[in-house]
Amino acid sequence: MGQTYDAIDQRLAAFIEAQHVFFVATAPAGAGGHVNLSPKGLDSFRILDPHTVAYLDLTGSGVETIAHLRENGRITIMFCAFEGPPKIVRLYGHGSVLRAGEAAFDELATRFPDHPGKRAVIRVAVERVADSCGYAVPRYRYDGERAQLLDWAERKGPDELERYRREKNARSLDRLTGID
């Protein structure tokens, strides 16, 4: 059954890199507020070293992950096999938000495709790595990426995306600061 690991080893890295989708979970501090769980794809995840990962954050309808990370940093990233042998891998850690235009963002953004609408890189210091069986996860066949988000961002253009982020991504559901 499940095991914990000191770091992301080569075997776990190969599993992670083979997945087409991952899930990001965060929550505000304290007992109240909304727990957020977001699916991600579009070749947006990278392993930087055995204890550090990052993903490219694209402009979307919400800003929960960014707001929660700015408040308390807690994050869990989950990968599960929908094809091949059943397996789930979770990375627990503390994340930081590197905004577009910051030097740290510019350095890491080169590791990802140049998607329109990129607003941040989320960098995670991984503190715990665990796997589990995934026996109850159904099988699905990967059919390809969806283009709608990228097409939407392309149509908006940089100025309209900036306006959109100011209007729609300034605050989280719990009124935490998102994008300044």
Structure in words:
With 180 residues, this protein is α+β, with helices and mostly antiparallel strands. It has a single domain (3-137, 145-168), classed as Electron Transport, Fmn-binding Protein, Chain A (Pnp Oxidase, Chain A). It has helices spanning 10-18, 64-71, 103-109, 148-168; strands spanning 3-5, 22-26, 36-40, 45-49, 52-58, 74-80, 88-99, 118-132. Strands 1, 2, 3, 4, 5, 6, 7 and 8 form an eight-stranded antiparallel sheet that branches. The model has no long low-confidence stretch (mean pLDDT 96).
Main pleated sheet: 8 strands, antiparallel
CATH superfamily caption: Electron Transport, Fmn-binding Protein, Chain A
CATH architecture: Roll
Which structural class best describes the helix and strand composition? alpha+beta
Percent helix, as a range, is: 25-40%
Mean pLDDT: 96
What is the number of E strands? 8
How many discrete domains? 1
| Continuous helix count | 4
